[in-house]
């Protein structure tokens, strides 16, 4: 499929996405996959850096690791909700934890999906499409 075909097939779900993951390899894989789909993607290795980026521009979606040093995914989400309650982007969390049950209540309350690492890029694409798809 050529680049135009790729963009037109995903045109209803193209978005401005911020990827936040302290694992550089994971972050780069997610970013390159999303850019290949035509998304406008920025990346951050820390929650604090993500907050700086979020203060400068609006995002449709934040794809964030749950566990990060200093400012983890739930703390990032809480900070975003406090600072920009009316313009909060959607969140999708990823985690390498074999058992993320400690976060189940948090994820249920905020209605955010979780992808467990390692995940297939197709699963990431499907999750993002569901999140960004315009509601009829």
Query: How many angstroms does the end-to-end distance come to?
Result: 28 Å
Poorly predicted runs are 1-12
| Quaternary structure type | single chain
Number of helices: 6
SS elements, strand count = 5
Strand percent estimate: 15-25%
Task: Record the strand order, biggest sheet.
Answer: 2-1-3-4-5
User: Taking all residues together, what is the mean pLDDT?
Assistant: 87
Tertiary shape: globular
Tell me roughly what share of residues is in helical segments: 40-55%
Q: Please give the largest β-sheet.
A: 5 strands, parallel
Order of helices and strands: HEHEHEHEHEH
User: What structural class do helix, strand and pairing data support?
Assistant: alpha/beta
Radius of gyration: 14 Å
The gist of it:
With about 140 residues, this protein is α/β, with parallel strands linked by helices.
What does this structure look like?
The chain is of the alpha/beta class. Helix content is 44%, strand content 18%. The chain has helices spanning 3-9, 24-36, 47-56, 73-83, 104-110, 121-132; strands at 16-20, 40-44, 61-65, 90-95, 114-116. It has a five-stranded parallel beta sheet, with helices on both faces. Helix 5 (104-110) links the parallel strand 4 and strand 5 (114-116).
Protein topology:
Elements: H1 3-9, E1 16-20, H2 24-36, E2 40-44, H3 47-56, E3 61-65, H4 73-83, E4 90-95, H5 104-110, E5 114-116, H6 121-132
Parallel strand pairs: 1-2, 1-3, 3-4, 4-5
């Amino acid at each position: 499929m050529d680049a135009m075909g790729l963009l037109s097939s995903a045109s209803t779900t193209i978005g401005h996405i911020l990827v936040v993951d302290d694992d550089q390899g994971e972050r780069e894989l997610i970013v390159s996959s999303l850019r290949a789909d035509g998304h406008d993607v920025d990346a951050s290795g820390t929650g604090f850096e993500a907050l700086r980026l979020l203060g400068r521009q609006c995002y449709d979606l934040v794809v964030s690791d749950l566990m990060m040093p200093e400012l983890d995914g739930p703390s990032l989400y809480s900070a975003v909700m406090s600072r920009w309650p009316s313009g909060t982007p959607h969140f999708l969390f990823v985690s390498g934890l074999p058992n993320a049950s400690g976060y189940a209540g948090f994820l249920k309350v905020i209605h955010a999906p979780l992808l467990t690492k390692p995940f297939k890029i197709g699963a990431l694409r499907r999750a993002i499409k569901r999140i960004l798809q315009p509601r009829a």
